[in-house]
């Protein structure tokens, strides 16, 4: 097991990142030395003496056992995850990206590009009118191009990661809760500073913004095109979903870094349970503001789900409900509610 632990230098002084599967652990140089010795299959009883002689310390067997226990409890446990990986699509490490494009993700200029593209996409979303499909083939092409956009989102993460020395080796397809998603393994970015991680987490959104601006430009020359107008619209909706800080998409990880909460989901859920028990959270303003917004978001989702179920159940009872899409939506919502109840969220 220890032989498969990866050790990375970090942007933080005297800190290293240990990675095993999808688990991570920040450690100091002593723990790093212990892991290196375990990777070499050195007898555990010999480790204190080796470390003491090398670093002029006085660690004992109990200290080493405590370190090993912490490593195993953090790295070698299977953590519950909402992401189910089905298959790998491409290895982005094999794609050569021009340095010029990587430089878009420089710390000093990235946000200028990001906000410029965001304004263009907001304007496009408000201005462009969607066109109704005239054939089945148009609909098929829409979904094909949409898949390309979603993969481009993950490639954006990969390019920004490469800019900061993190090589990603997998873009794949799977399910997040019950929703089909494309994913990329960004676990190694935890060795980077907060500033760099935020840029990497926003880089997928930036990739979509870039595509949205390009589509809007094309739309000025090709008016009333079903494929272009609908891609602009759907692309923007997906962008809003990715900005959402209450689901584990890009916006969530950005807020997690800004609030300096590595496990923001669990922390916010605990604080929300405290609110329901009339316990006021003793946290900084940013965290309190986040959990109140999350509470509003949860209530809004519950209201819309109940309203949807009520409205279309009436249609079903009155035999007004023949659209298969709505039946599928009700089934999906039912599955989602069941999953949330099981998780007690």
Task: Please give the structural blueprint.
Layout: E1 6-9, E2 16-20, E3 23-27, H1 29-39, H2 47-55, H3 61-75, E4 83-90, H4 99-102, H5 110-127, H6 136-163, E5 171-176, E6 179-184, H7 194-221, H8 226-243, H9 250-258, H10 264-276, H11 285-317, H12 324-343
Antiparallel strand pairs: 1-2, 2-3, 4-5, 5-6
Q: What is the rounded distance between the termini?
A: 34 Å
**Total of helices:** 12
Number of spatially distinct domains? 3
Low-confidence spans: pLDDT under 50, at least 5 residues?
A: none
Strand content: 5-15%
Please trace the helix and strand order, writing H or E for each element: EEEHHHEHHHEEHHHHHH
Mean pLDDT: 85
Q: How large is the radius of gyration? A: 24 Å
Which sequence of strands runs across the widest sheet? Answer: 1-2-3
Oligomer: single chain
Let me know the number of strands: 6
> Structural class per helix/strand content?
mainly alpha
Query: What overall geometry do the principal axes of the alpha carbons give?
Result: globular
The amount of helix comes to: 55-70%
Largest sheet: 3 strands, antiparallel
Features:
6 strands, mainly alpha, 345 residues, three-stranded antiparallel β-sheet, 60% helix, globular, 12 helices, 10% strand, single chain, 3 domains
Explained architecture:
It is a single chain. This protein is mainly alpha-helical and 345 residues long. The protein has three domains: 74 residues; 176 residues, no CATH class; 80 residues, no CATH class. 60% of the residues lie in helices and 10% in strands. The chain contains twelve helices and six strands. The strands form two sheets. Strands 1-2-3 form a three-stranded antiparallel β-sheet. It has a three-stranded antiparallel β-sheet with strand order 4-5-6, with helices on one face. Strand 2 and strand 3 form a beta hairpin. Helix 5 runs parallel beside helix 7, helix 7 packs antiparallel against helix 8 and helix 7 packs antiparallel against helix 9.
């Amino acid at each position: 097991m220890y032989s498969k632990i990866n050790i990375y230098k970090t942007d933080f002084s005297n800190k290293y990142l240990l990675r095993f599967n999808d688990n991570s652990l920040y450690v100091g140089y002593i723990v790093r030395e212990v892991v290196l010795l375990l990777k070499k299959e050195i007898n555990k009883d010999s480790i204190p003496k080796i470390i003491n002689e090398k670093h002029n310390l006085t660690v004992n067997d109990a200290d080493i056992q405590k370190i090993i226990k912490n490593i195993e409890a953090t790295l070698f446990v299977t953590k519950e995850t909402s992401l189910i990986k089905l298959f790998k699509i491409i290895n982005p490490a094999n794609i050569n990206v021009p340095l010029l494009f990587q430089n878009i993700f420089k710390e000093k200029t990235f946000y200028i590009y990001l906000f410029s593209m965001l304004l263009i996409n907001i304007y496009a979303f408000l201005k462009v009118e969607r066109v109704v499909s005239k054939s089945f083939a148009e609909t098929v092409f829409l979904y094909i191009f949409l898949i390309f956009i979603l993969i481009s989102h993950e490639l954006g993460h990969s390019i920004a990661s490469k800019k900061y020395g993190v090589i990603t080796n997998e873009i794949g397809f799977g399910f997040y809760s019950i929703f089909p998603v494309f994913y990329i393994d960004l676990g190694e970015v935890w060795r980077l500073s907060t500033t760099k991680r935020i840029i990497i987490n926003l880089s997928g959104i930036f990739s979509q913004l870039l595509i949205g601006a390009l589509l809007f430009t094309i739309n000025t020359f090709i008016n009333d095109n079903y494929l272009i107008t609908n891609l602009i619209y759907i692309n923007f909706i997906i962008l809003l979903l990715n900005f959402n800080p209450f689901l584990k998409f890009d916006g969530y990880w950005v807020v997690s870094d800004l609030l300096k909460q590595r496990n923001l989901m669990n922390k916010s859920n605990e604080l929300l349970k405290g609110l329901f028990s009339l316990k006021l959270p003793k946290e900084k303003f940013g965290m309190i503001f986040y959990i109140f917004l999350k509470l509003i978001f949860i209530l809004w989702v519950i209201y819309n789900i109940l309203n949807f179920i009520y409205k279309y159940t009436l249609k079903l009872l009155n035999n007004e409900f023949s659209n298969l899409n709505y039946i599928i939506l009700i089934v999906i919502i039912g599955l989602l509610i069941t999953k949330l109840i099981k998780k007690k969220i």
